[in-house]
């Protein structure tokens, strides 16, 4: 699967009319190099090869586990400059995120090539078959955790207790951790979009909002579900129905080559028309991979096509300090004809 990742990098290089790309950031190092504990590596993509320069502590293990890579010994800064010179660089892409200013001055600026900055997240937009399997497994675990929490939660439980129970469950199921701090909000607290769990205890007939994700084999998941023990007040139930319709319309219209801004607009317009002109105060979706927030996005400014085999969330919401907040979020794989919902194993039903 590393070969497919290398092909993706060279497709990006071609799009920018460049001849090479240099990767320094730890996140893209771990994305390319399997089974690596290396805390340092310089990667140069040139002539359809990925050249990895790494120090003596790690070169043997990287060579053994990454046969598709051309591995070289990094001795000192001169060995890096000499290697780059031997590759005859002319137009070289480099990451603007994940690279410090000090690293830029040390490893990049002195090179005899025209440097072109790019968003490093773009390297990871299209997922390989192996990545998609890991993302599905991560999504399966978090869906199972959500369903477990529905059965576990009782009147009188606190937000903190519920968040702790979810974390315990995903670890027991094989996740290495959470992909972000779990949001558990009851009642009026659910209007706080990124509220931290508190000692607030659950009451009957109020909103329960859970936004959670886990990490499995290095890959993240993300889901938001809302439910209630008892019966929601009519206005909160109507709010739920409107948000669910917005979520469903986003899923219905998403497919390869549709722009992220269009999906955002579709979801946003459903809520504007059905909830007195209300405008969602956040983007409707973001990419997910080895980081919880990656490209592509569904928001007001991402005017780029969503490619097949990219991942994105669809998460519209309405928030009212008096009523509470409703957000419904699914993680989907974009396909040529539509999408595959990874979080389908957790039903979008309001009743526990």
In brief:
Helices cover 34% and strands 22% of the residues.
Plain-language structure description:
There is one protein chain. The chain is an alpha+beta fold and 352 residues long. The protein contains nine helices and 19 strands. The protein is elongated, with a radius of gyration of 23 Å. The mean pLDDT is 95. α6 (129-152) crosses α7 and α8 (234-253) packs antiparallel against α9. A six-stranded mixed beta sheet has the order 4-3-2-1-5-6, with helices on both faces. A three-stranded antiparallel beta sheet has the order 7-10-11. The protein has helices spanning 2-15, 26-32, 59-65, 77-86, 101-108, 129-152, 159-172, 234-253, 260-274, and strands spanning 20-23, 42-46, 49-54, 70-73, 91-95, 114-118, 177-178, 183-186, 208-212, 214-216, 219-220, 223-227, 285-287, 294-298, 311-314, 317-320, 324-327, 330-334, 339-341.
Mean pLDDT: 95
Spans with pLDDT under 50 lasting ≥5 residues?
Answer: none
Please trace the helix and strand order, writing H or E for each element. Answer: HEHEEHEHEHEHHEEEEEEHHEEEEEEE
The count of β-strands is 19
Q: Strand fraction band?
A: 15-25%
- How many individual helices? 9
The gross shape turns out to be elongated
Structural class: alpha+beta
N- to C-terminal separation? 41 Å
What attributes characterize this protein structure?
352 residues; alpha+beta; 6-stranded mixed sheet; 9 helices; 34% helix
Blueprint of the fold:
Elements: H1 2-15, E1 20-23, H2 26-32, E2 42-46, E3 49-54, H3 59-65, E4 70-73, H4 77-86, E5 91-95, H5 101-108, E6 114-118, H6 129-152, H7 159-172, E7 177-178, E8 183-186, E9 208-212, E10 214-216, E11 219-220, E12 223-227, H8 234-253, H9 260-274, E13 285-287, E14 294-298, E15 311-314, E16 317-320, E17 324-327, E18 330-334, E19 339-341
Helix pairs in contact: 6-7, 8-9
